[in-house]
Amino acid sequence: MMKKDKKSSKEFDDYVKDILSLLDKNYLDLKCSLNYKEPYELLFSAILSAQCTDIRVNLITKNLFEKYKNINDFANVESNDLEKDIKSAGFYRNKAKNIILCAKKLIELNNKIPDNILELKKFPGVGRKTANVIRSHVFKIPCIVVDTHVKRISNRLKLTQKKDPEKIEFELMNILPENNWLRFNMQIINHGRKICSARKPDCKNCFLNKICKTFIESII
Ligand code: SF4
Hints:
- It is a single chain.
- By secondary structure, the chain is mostly helical.
- The protein is 60% helix and 0% strand.
- The two termini are 21 Å apart.
- Helix 5 (79-86) crosses helix 6 (92-108).
- It folds into two domains: 6-30 and 145-219, Endonuclease Iii, domain 2; 39-137, Endonuclease III, domain 1, CATH 1.10.340.
- The chain has helices at residues 6-26, 39-48, 54-67, 71-76, 79-86, 92-108, 117-120, 128-137, 148-156, 165-175, 181-194, 213-219.
- The model has no long low-confidence stretch (mean pLDDT 95).
- The relative contact order is 0.12.
- The chain is elongated, with a radius of gyration of 19 Å.
- It binds iron/sulfur cluster.
- The site of iron/sulfur cluster has 14 residues, from helix 9 and helix 12.
Protein backbone atom coordinates (compact mmCIF):
# COMPACT_ATOMS: atom_id res chain seq x y z
CA MET A 1 0.00 0.00 0.00
CA MET A 2 1.38 3.40 -0.98
CA LYS A 3 1.87 5.95 1.77
CA LYS A 4 0.40 9.15 0.32
CA ASP A 5 0.86 12.04 2.72
CA LYS A 6 1.96 12.62 6.29
CA LYS A 7 -1.51 12.06 7.75
CA SER A 8 -2.34 8.91 5.79
CA SER A 9 1.16 7.65 6.40
CA LYS A 10 0.72 8.03 10.17
CA GLU A 11 -2.71 6.43 9.97
CA PHE A 12 -1.31 3.52 8.04
CA ASP A 13 1.63 3.10 10.41
CA ASP A 14 -0.79 3.03 13.36
CA TYR A 15 -2.96 0.51 11.53
CA VAL A 16 0.06 -1.77 11.01
CA LYS A 17 1.08 -1.40 14.66
CA ASP A 18 -2.43 -2.34 15.81
CA ILE A 19 -2.45 -5.43 13.59
CA LEU A 20 0.96 -6.55 14.88
CA SER A 21 0.02 -5.93 18.48
CA LEU A 22 -3.21 -7.97 18.14
CA LEU A 23 -1.33 -10.78 16.40
CA ASP A 24 1.22 -10.80 19.24
CA LYS A 25 -1.55 -10.97 21.85
CA ASN A 26 -3.40 -13.79 20.16
CA TYR A 27 -0.64 -15.97 18.79
CA LEU A 28 1.98 -16.65 21.41
CA ASP A 29 2.91 -20.25 20.88
CA LEU A 30 4.74 -20.04 17.58
CA LYS A 31 6.52 -22.84 15.83
CA CYS A 32 7.15 -24.05 12.34
CA SER A 33 4.09 -25.83 10.98
CA LEU A 34 6.27 -28.52 9.36
CA ASN A 35 7.76 -31.08 11.74
CA TYR A 36 11.49 -31.69 11.41
CA LYS A 37 14.59 -32.46 13.44
CA GLU A 38 17.39 -31.82 10.94
CA PRO A 39 17.61 -28.87 8.53
CA TYR A 40 17.57 -31.21 5.52
CA GLU A 41 14.28 -32.65 6.80
CA LEU A 42 12.75 -29.18 6.68
CA LEU A 43 14.05 -28.77 3.13
CA PHE A 44 12.42 -32.02 2.02
CA SER A 45 9.20 -31.26 3.93
CA ALA A 46 9.01 -27.86 2.28
CA ILE A 47 9.42 -29.50 -1.15
CA LEU A 48 6.62 -31.92 -0.28
CA SER A 49 4.37 -29.09 0.89
CA ALA A 50 3.89 -27.57 -2.57
CA GLN A 51 0.15 -27.87 -3.33
CA CYS A 52 -0.27 -29.99 -0.22
CA THR A 53 -1.30 -29.21 3.37
CA ASP A 54 1.31 -29.13 6.13
CA ILE A 55 -0.83 -31.60 8.08
CA ARG A 56 -0.59 -34.12 5.25
CA VAL A 57 3.15 -33.49 4.89
CA ASN A 58 3.70 -34.11 8.61
CA LEU A 59 1.82 -37.41 8.33
CA ILE A 60 4.01 -38.47 5.42
CA THR A 61 7.32 -37.37 6.97
CA LYS A 62 6.61 -39.11 10.29
CA ASN A 63 7.24 -42.44 8.55
CA LEU A 64 9.55 -41.10 5.85
CA PHE A 65 12.21 -39.79 8.23
CA GLU A 66 12.16 -43.07 10.13
CA LYS A 67 12.58 -45.11 6.98
CA TYR A 68 15.31 -42.89 5.44
CA LYS A 69 17.54 -41.91 8.32
CA ASN A 70 20.00 -39.52 6.70
CA ILE A 71 20.84 -37.60 3.55
CA ASN A 72 22.69 -40.61 2.05
CA ASP A 73 19.57 -42.74 2.35
CA PHE A 74 17.62 -40.17 0.33
CA ALA A 75 20.42 -39.79 -2.24
CA ASN A 76 20.52 -43.54 -2.84
CA VAL A 77 16.84 -44.47 -2.89
CA GLU A 78 15.27 -45.48 -6.21
CA SER A 79 12.86 -42.84 -7.46
CA ASN A 80 10.06 -45.45 -7.79
CA ASP A 81 10.40 -46.43 -4.13
CA LEU A 82 10.37 -42.85 -2.85
CA GLU A 83 7.36 -42.08 -5.06
CA LYS A 84 5.37 -44.76 -3.23
CA ASP A 85 6.29 -43.26 0.15
CA ILE A 86 5.22 -39.74 -0.77
CA LYS A 87 2.37 -40.45 -3.17
CA SER A 88 -0.32 -38.79 -1.04
CA ALA A 89 1.53 -35.43 -1.22
CA GLY A 90 0.56 -35.09 -4.90
CA PHE A 91 2.96 -34.33 -7.76
CA TYR A 92 4.91 -37.19 -6.25
CA ARG A 93 7.06 -38.02 -9.28
CA ASN A 94 8.50 -34.53 -9.47
CA LYS A 95 8.80 -34.24 -5.71
CA ALA A 96 10.62 -37.59 -5.43
CA LYS A 97 13.00 -36.58 -8.20
CA ASN A 98 13.69 -33.21 -6.57
CA ILE A 99 14.25 -34.69 -3.11
CA ILE A 100 16.78 -37.20 -4.48
CA LEU A 101 18.58 -34.49 -6.48
CA CYS A 102 18.61 -32.19 -3.43
CA ALA A 103 20.09 -34.99 -1.30
CA LYS A 104 22.83 -35.52 -3.92
CA LYS A 105 23.54 -31.78 -4.04
CA LEU A 106 23.72 -31.65 -0.24
CA ILE A 107 26.31 -34.43 -0.25
CA GLU A 108 28.38 -32.39 -2.71
CA LEU A 109 28.17 -29.52 -0.20
CA ASN A 110 29.26 -31.72 2.75
CA ASN A 111 25.67 -31.88 4.00
CA LYS A 112 25.58 -28.12 4.58
CA ILE A 113 22.50 -26.19 3.56
CA PRO A 114 23.40 -22.68 2.41
CA ASP A 115 21.68 -19.67 4.00
CA ASN A 116 21.91 -17.54 0.87
CA ILE A 117 18.70 -17.21 -1.11
CA LEU A 118 20.40 -17.44 -4.51
CA GLU A 119 22.30 -20.60 -3.48
CA LEU A 120 19.16 -22.13 -2.02
CA LYS A 121 17.23 -21.46 -5.22
CA LYS A 122 19.77 -23.60 -7.09
CA PHE A 123 18.37 -26.67 -5.30
CA PRO A 124 15.86 -28.57 -7.46
CA GLY A 125 12.28 -27.80 -6.46
CA VAL A 126 13.28 -24.83 -4.30
CA GLY A 127 11.73 -21.47 -5.10
CA ARG A 128 11.78 -18.23 -3.19
CA LYS A 129 9.14 -19.33 -0.68
CA THR A 130 10.94 -22.55 0.26
CA ALA A 131 14.29 -20.73 0.39
CA ASN A 132 12.80 -18.24 2.84
CA VAL A 133 11.28 -21.04 4.95
CA ILE A 134 14.78 -22.49 5.34
CA ARG A 135 16.39 -19.12 6.03
CA SER A 136 13.82 -18.15 8.64
CA HIS A 137 13.52 -21.44 10.55
CA VAL A 138 17.00 -22.92 10.20
CA PHE A 139 19.10 -19.76 10.21
CA LYS A 140 16.71 -17.34 11.97
CA ILE A 141 17.35 -14.78 9.24
CA PRO A 142 14.51 -12.27 9.22
CA CYS A 143 12.51 -12.75 6.04
CA ILE A 144 8.93 -12.79 4.87
CA VAL A 145 7.60 -16.12 3.61
CA VAL A 146 4.74 -15.48 1.22
CA ASP A 147 2.65 -18.62 1.29
CA THR A 148 -1.03 -18.86 0.44
CA HIS A 149 -2.11 -17.57 3.88
CA VAL A 150 0.26 -14.59 3.91
CA LYS A 151 -0.79 -13.71 0.36
CA ARG A 152 -4.53 -13.91 1.09
CA ILE A 153 -4.58 -12.25 4.50
CA SER A 154 -2.15 -9.44 3.63
CA ASN A 155 -4.53 -8.61 0.80
CA ARG A 156 -7.62 -8.83 3.03
CA LEU A 157 -5.98 -6.57 5.60
CA LYS A 158 -4.97 -4.31 2.70
CA LEU A 159 -1.36 -4.30 3.72
CA THR A 160 -0.75 -4.86 0.04
CA GLN A 161 -2.80 -4.99 -3.11
CA LYS A 162 -0.20 -6.96 -5.04
CA LYS A 163 -0.88 -10.51 -6.19
CA ASP A 164 2.63 -11.56 -7.13
CA PRO A 165 4.30 -13.30 -4.12
CA GLU A 166 7.69 -11.68 -4.69
CA LYS A 167 6.14 -8.19 -4.86
CA ILE A 168 4.12 -8.94 -1.72
CA GLU A 169 7.30 -10.08 0.03
CA PHE A 170 9.11 -6.82 -0.74
CA GLU A 171 6.10 -4.68 0.10
CA LEU A 172 5.65 -6.39 3.48
CA MET A 173 9.37 -6.03 4.18
CA ASN A 174 8.95 -2.33 3.56
CA ILE A 175 5.88 -2.00 5.79
CA LEU A 176 6.63 -4.30 8.74
CA PRO A 177 9.41 -3.77 11.29
CA GLU A 178 12.16 -6.30 10.68
CA ASN A 179 11.93 -7.77 14.16
CA ASN A 180 8.32 -8.81 13.40
CA TRP A 181 9.03 -10.64 10.16
CA LEU A 182 9.72 -14.11 11.56
CA ARG A 183 6.73 -14.22 13.85
CA PHE A 184 4.42 -12.45 11.37
CA ASN A 185 4.80 -15.45 9.02
CA MET A 186 3.83 -17.94 11.70
CA GLN A 187 1.07 -15.75 13.16
CA ILE A 188 -0.57 -15.26 9.77
CA ILE A 189 -0.34 -18.98 8.96
CA ASN A 190 -2.09 -19.68 12.28
CA HIS A 191 -4.67 -17.02 11.57
CA GLY A 192 -5.36 -18.43 8.11
CA ARG A 193 -5.87 -21.89 9.52
CA LYS A 194 -7.98 -20.94 12.50
CA ILE A 195 -10.01 -17.88 11.48
CA CYS A 196 -9.31 -16.17 8.16
CA SER A 197 -9.69 -19.22 5.93
CA ALA A 198 -9.72 -18.96 2.15
CA ARG A 199 -13.32 -20.05 1.70
CA LYS A 200 -15.08 -18.90 4.84
CA PRO A 201 -13.33 -16.32 6.99
CA ASP A 202 -14.90 -16.18 10.44
CA CYS A 203 -14.96 -12.38 10.58
CA LYS A 204 -17.57 -12.31 13.34
CA ASN A 205 -15.20 -13.99 15.76
CA CYS A 206 -11.96 -12.49 14.44
CA PHE A 207 -9.93 -10.39 16.88
CA LEU A 208 -8.95 -8.14 13.96
CA ASN A 209 -12.52 -7.33 12.91
CA LYS A 210 -12.58 -3.87 14.48
CA ILE A 211 -9.73 -2.71 12.27
CA CYS A 212 -9.64 -5.09 9.26
CA LYS A 213 -10.25 -2.90 6.22
CA THR A 214 -11.94 -5.64 4.18
CA PHE A 215 -14.37 -6.48 6.98
CA ILE A 216 -15.17 -2.84 7.72
CA GLU A 217 -15.83 -2.16 4.04
CA SER A 218 -18.14 -5.18 3.93
CA ILE A 219 -20.43 -3.87 6.68
CA ILE A 220 -20.74 -0.21 5.67
S1 SF4 B 1 -11.95 -9.67 9.90
FE1 SF4 B 1 -12.35 -11.33 8.45
S2 SF4 B 1 -11.18 -10.83 6.59
FE2 SF4 B 1 -10.41 -9.54 8.27
S3 SF4 B 1 -8.66 -10.70 9.06
FE3 SF4 B 1 -10.44 -11.24 10.29
S4 SF4 B 1 -11.29 -13.09 9.32
FE4 SF4 B 1 -9.88 -12.13 7.88
